[in-house]
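Record type: monomer structure entry
Structure origin: computed from sequence
Chain ID: A
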Amino acid sequence: MAMKCILCVDDDPSALELRKLLLGAAGYSVLTAGSGTEALEVLDKGANVDLALLDYMMPGMNGDELAEKLRRKHPGIPLVAVSAVGQLPQAFLNI
């Protein structure tokens, strides 16, 4: 069985490293991106991703904007939102 690949997107390098370590220890292949733009570049280069784990609060392109672009460009990738905010905006809940 092929190893599943998760793309983690977060502007906090410590959070990315922690997720990479935890998910890697659980048997996943993990790609990381420090911004929405970087995440799109990773996918445009042909990365085969089974799941995208998105931070909501990012400068530039926030998680909501990235989710919308991913829905259009890569509709087969399931999206999971991660955030420190108490309640995600309604638009993000419709992923």
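Annotation 1: The chain has a mean pLDDT of 89.
Annotation 2: The two ends are 28 Å apart (CA to CA).
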